[in-house]
User: Fold these one by one.
Assistant:
Number 1:
Amino acid sequence: MPRMPADRDVIRAPKGMLDVLPPESARWIELISRFTSRAERFGYGLLLTPIVEHYDVFTRVGETTDVVRKEMYDFVDRGGRRLALRPEGTAPVVRAFVQHRPPTPWKVWYLAPNFRAEQPQAGRYRQHWQLGAEVIGIDDPDVDVEVIELLWGFCRDLGLRDLRLLVNSMGDAETRARYREVLLAYWRAHSALLGNEMERAEANPLRILDSKRSDWFEMLEQAPQLGEYLTDASAAHFMRVQEGLQELGIPFEIAPRLVRGFDYYTSTVFELASGALDAAQNAIGGGGRYDRLAQEMGGPAAPSIGFGAGIERLLLACDAEGVLPVPAARLDVFVVDLVGVSGTARLLAELRESGLAADRAYGGRSLKKQMTAADRAGARWAVIIGSSEVERGVVAVRDMRSEQPLQQEVRREEIAAWLRTEIDKAPS
Ligand code: HAM
C-alpha cells in the first residue's frame, strides 16, 4: 500500500488562492462565454497582456492606495528588473495603449487573474479573476452609458436580479482640487476620531470616504459631498450619463460618497452591488472614468472609461440567488468496448470528428463498470462492442434514457450518422 500523505505533508495552493475543478469549472466556461459574446456584440475585442508588468505601471494606479502600498506581489527578476503581478486590469490596458498607439476609440475586453495580498475571507481572495472592458480615447457620456450597460446586461443575463447600481461623479481636476481642500479641513477637525489614519487622510483625503468603520459612520455621513463642488462641465456630463441610463431603463442610485479605490478615477464612477452577498464584499463589479491616466503614463491625452467584474463574486451571487447552476454532465455517446478491439479508438475518433461528445472507459473493465461510467458521464447513448457484434460488422446501441435495457443494432459504418440523426431529432 502506498503511504497516504499526512494532511500536513500535502502541498496546498497558496493561501487565499483557489483551484477551480470540474464540474464547477463548467460554470466558469458558461459565464465567460456569455461575457465574451456580449462584449464582441458590443464591438469590443479581446486584449491579452502579461500577468507581470514593470512595477512602475502600477504606481500610477495610486501610491496612496492599499492595493499598491501593501498588497502588491512584487519582486526583482534575474535581470534586476522590478516587476509586479498584476493587481488590477486597467493600468496594463493603458500601458498597452500607450505602447502600441492603436486608433481610438479603442474598445477592448479582458479576462485575467489579479493578485492582491489581502486578508482572505469569503469573496476576497489573493488571486481573483476579472472580466473587464475598457474604452480608451473618447470623452463622451454615451460611452459611459454603454460601458455600464455592458456590465448591467451581462449580470441580468446571468439571471441576477438582486442588484444595485451605484453611480457618482468625481468631477474634473479642478473639482477634485477644491473638494480635497474642503475635505481635508473637515478631517483635521475630526483628527481625534481619525487617530493614526490622519496620516492617510493627509496623503489622500478621498481615501477615508469609502471606509466601512462603524465608529466613523456619523463623521462620514456629515462629510462634505463631492457633488456640491462639480464644475458646470462635470455636472453636465454626469447629467447626460443619468439620462442615458434612464433611456435604457437601467435603474441606478446616486451614491455621493462613492469614490472607488484607485487614484486614477475622474468623472463618472460606478459600482454594481449584489444584495444577495455580505455587505463587506458585495461589489460584483465596478469602474469609472480615468481621463488622465494615459498622459500620466507618457502617452497622448486619451480620456477613458471601463469596469472590472470579479468572477468568483459573480458566481457567489449566482449561488445566493440560485441561478446559473452547475450544468449536469452531458455526453452524447459512451463507447463500451468488451473485447479490446483495435477499432475502438478509430470509432471514437470518428464520432468526435462528426461533432458528437464521445468518451470511453479504459483498462478492460467489466460491462457493468463501463455502463456505470457511461451513466456517470451523463451519456445519452451507449455504443457497445462485443465479439459477436465485431463478427457481424455491427454495434449494439442502448438508449440510456430508457428504463429497459433495450438495445438495437446499427451497422458499424453507419453509427456516427445514425447517432447524429437521433440527437438532432431530440436534442437534450
Ligand atoms: P476593483 O473594484 O478593485 O476595480 O475590482 C473590480 C471587481 O473585482 C470588484 O468589484 C470585485 O468584484 C472583484 N475583486 C476585487 N478584489 C477582489 C478580491 N480580493 N477577491 C475577489 N474579488 C475581488 C478594478 O480592479 C478596476 N481595474 C476596475 C476598472 C476597470 N476601473 C476602470 N476600468
Number 2:
Amino acid sequence: MKFEKIQAPKGVREYLPPESSAFDWVRSQLIAPAVSAGYQLMELPVFEDTNLFSRGVGESTDVVSKEMYTFEDRGGRSITLRPEGTAGVMRAVIESNLDRGQLPVKVWYSGQFFRAERPQAGRYRQFYQVGIEAIGLDDPAIDAEVIAIADRGFKNLGLKNYRLEITSLGDSNSRAAHRVDLLKFIDSLTLDEATKERAQINPLRLFDDKRPEMQEAMKNAPLLLDYLSDESRANFEQVKKYLDALAISYVINPRMVRGLDYYTGTTFEFVHSDLGAQSGIGGGGRYDGLMETLGGQSLSGIGFGLGVDRALLAAVAEKSLPQDQFTSDLFIIPLGDDAMSSALVNAQLLRDAGIKTEIAFGDRSLKGAMKAADKSGAQYVVVFGDSELSSGEVNLKRMRDGVVTSVKIAQLKDVLRETLSR
Ligand code: HAM
C-alpha cells in the first residue's frame, strides 16, 4: 500500500535550509536593539483564553471577528491561538504582579502568531513577529525610544526603502469629542447594516475600509488629529521633537487605523515600498486602557510588533542580506582516520575562536568531498591528508577565486581570523 504525502496547512510559512539562516539572522537583528536597551525576554503560550483577545483586541476588529483560530479544548474551555502579542504580555504582567515592581516593565518577545487571513505574498496564517512592550510609563520620551528601537532593527537589516508613519489617537477626551462629530458624519452616509454596526463599535474602523466607495465617502470625514486636547497635542509634539533629535524621519498619517482596538495616543506603522499590498513591516503604539480592560490596574503602555516574514522579504527585495553570514568559514576535508581525528580536534579549536567550521564526513572521494565543500558555500577549504599531518602544513583554498596559501595547521585560527575580519 502506498501512502499519500501530507502537505503543510494552507497559508503557513515555514523556513528550511538554506533560507532559514537568513530568517534567523533577520529575527535576531530586529530584536538586538531592544536587548541593548534593557528589554527582557518573555516566553508566552501560543494559546490563551479566548476572552483575552475578544476583550483586549476588540470585537470590532477583523482579527477578532473573522480571523481567530478558536477551538474548545478537552476541558470544554474556549481557547484561541494568539493573533498578536500585546494582550498576552498584559495578561502575564497582571497575573505575575510584574506591574507592582519596578516601572516601566520592559519586555520583548518573539514567535508565531495566527490569523485566518486570506493567504497571499507576505500574508500568512501563521507568521512571525518580534515585539516589545514598555508598561507603566506615560512619557513621550519612551514613545520615541520604542519607535527608535524598531527603526534601528530595520536599519540593522540594511533596509532603506521604508517610511515611518505616525499619528496620535489622543486621550479619551480627544477621542470622545471626535467620536461625536465622526458619528454625525457617518450618519449622513448611506451604509449597509454590517458597516453601520462596525461604526457603532469603533467608527475609526471605517477609515480602514478598503472598498473604493468607502474610501471616497470617508474623504471628508473629520480627523482625530484635529480634535486633540491641548495635553495630547503637546504630547505628540514632544514625541516628534524627540524623533527629530534622533534624526528619524516620519510622515504624519492622520488616517492611519491600526487593526487592533486598544490603541490610544502615539501610534505608528513602518511601510515598505517594495512589497506590494502587504507593505506593513511593523507597527505599534500606546494602549492606555488595555491593562484595566484585562482586570489589572490602570497603567499606560506602548510597544510594537515587527513582521519577521515581511522584513525578510524586504531585505531580499533590497538585496541587503549579508550572504557570507549564512555559510561556513572553513570546510575541512580529512582523508583517513588519523586525519579525521585531527580535523575533529582542529574544528573544535577553530569554532571556539568563532570560526564557523564544517567537516566532510563519510567515506567520500576527494572529488566528492570538494563538491560538497563547494555546495556548502564555505569561504575556505583545506584538505587534511597524511602528508599535511606529517608536515603540519595545509593548503588553504579561497573558494571565491581559487587562490591557495600554505598555512601551518597551528596557525589556521590566526590566519582565518585575520582574513575573515577584513
Ligand atoms: P500588527 O500591526 O497587527 O500589530 O502586526 C504587526 C506586524 O506583524 C505587521 O506590521 C506585519 O508586519 C506583521 N503581520 C501581521 N499580520 C500578518 C500576516 N497575516 N502575515 C504576515 N505578517 C503579518 C500587532 O500585532 C500589535 N500587537 C503590535 C503592538 C505591540 N502594538 C503595541 N504593542
